[in-house]
Design a protein that fits this description.
Chains A, B: Keywords: Flavoprotein, FMN, NADP, Oxidoreductase. Two copies of one chain form a homodimer. In chain A, helix 2 packs across helix 6. Helices cover 47% and strands 13% of the residues of chain A. The termini of chain A are far apart. Chain A has a domain of 170 residues: NADH Oxidase. Chain A is built from eleven helices and five strands. Chain A has 246 residues and is of the alpha+beta class. Chains A and B meet through helix 1, helix 2, strand 1, helix 4 and helix 5 of A and helix 1, helix 2, strand 1, helix 4 and helix 5 of B.
């Protein structure tokens, strides 16, 4: 097994960091790796905001409810970005280009571009011995995050990524059985056996892990997650910024 | 520089493959690496369809207009997948859970989950000496791809990934200047100088590259891309499958 596969297969999210900040060189490598990810039709429809301002980090930690959003080696916010494309359209006064930029197809393109870039950055960080964790909970108050980072129209924050030197190692979390996730030629709807066996796996994992042991299953977690309306404002927000309009 | 960074920074899309098919072991490693990517709140809201059926590959090559969608080492289709979560809701007869599953927030979550997984798969493939290319053009006829793969409600195809042994090496495509993509603490809207200098870079690249040399710039490409309405049916399609409803 090569070193890269080892890095990929050893992944675990890190949520506690020493207070060593990343060097400029480390940040540059992470950004450069992110930029080298594939991009849909060369659009490069994303931007990354590095947040170093302590007041902003504090407020982001409040929004997300996660202290490590403030206390880490570096905080990146990944954004879907069609601003550069919109400038071209505005300069040419082409209204039909704007309509195209604002459709669901390009909401998808920009979200996918940002995610591919982010994952390259994550792998780059982990290959250098750093730990990382994505922060989807910036969408707890996506409008406020948007204001904090002064994002123009056609740019929206999608998720954060904290990076730093791990303060403690964590255990690796099991994944769904391969056959529930990987299908051949057509989708296999018969997954209930796999989900039951996964629930047993994950119950054992939660019961036996060294930190934060608890009684829980994947099914119970998902039911809790979806039982209350969550981030219902994301839809109106993204449309107000010129994404996902139809 | 470690081996993983070298892999990340050496990326170029490969669009021509020898006729050697991937081994089961290679496919398993790619899927396993994909599964180890981070996933939002442990949702694992994606599925991967491996396509080996030649008739299906032919039709997908027609839809995408790319012959290498048929001729490659292996073809993966990455899907946003909330089907497993919807089963839980249906079993519990919880209508409010369905509404939550179908909102824009979880359209984003599942698209991001699928993309993070895909990029891990891409890096795993490249680390083993394979080449790859994403195929966004399956969305040229997303409804037909959905039928071909027999995807149930709450599963949609997002993009393909072809993997195989490169038939010829390609040159690496330049990226936007770092300062256009990476911002510190707030978004920098002053990018027109960067875009102009990038246009010069990319004009030189297209003029001098060994295969398919042409006169073109990034700006011109983007204007062409956005000048005609594109995949305007994606919006209705994803809603018809139970995604992005509000």
């Amino acid at each position: 097994m090569n070193q890269t596969l080892e890095t990929l297969l050893q992944h675990r999210s890190i949520r506690s960091f020493t207070d060593t900040v990343l060097t400029e060189e480390q940040i540059n490598i992470i950004v450069e790796a992110a930029q080298m990810a594939s991009t849909s039709s060369y659009m490069q429809a994303y931007s990354i905001i590095g947040v170093t301002d302590l007041e902003k980090k504090k407020e982001l930690a409040d929004i997300t409810g996660q202290s490590y959003v403030k206390d880490n080696g570096h905080l990146f916010i990944f954004c879907a970005d069609l601003y550069r494309h919109q400038i071209l359209a505005s300069d040419l006064q082409k209204q039909d280009m704007i309509q195209n930029i604002e459709n669901t197809e390009h909401f998808l393109v920009s979200s996918i571009d940002a995610s591919l870039a982010a994952q390259n950055g994550a792998i780059a960080a982990e290959s250098m011995g750093l730990g990382m964790c994505y922060i989807g909970s910036i969408r707890n108050n996506i409008e406020r995050v948007d204001q904090l980072l002064q994002l123009p129209e056609h740019v929206i924050p999608l998720f954060g990524m904290v990076v730093g030197y791990p303060n403690k190692q964590t255990e690796q979390k099991p994944r769904l059985p391969k056959q529930a996730v990987y299908h051949v030629n057509s989708y296999n709807k018969e997954q209930s056996g796999d989900l039951r066996s996964f629930d047993h796996t994950i119950q054992d994992y939660y019961k036996s892990r060294k930190q934060n042991a608890r009684l829980d299953s994947w099914t119970d977690q998902m039911i809790r997650r979806f039982s209350h309306p969550m981030r219902m404002d994301v839809s109106d927000f993204v449309q107000s910024k010129g994404f996902n309009k139809r």
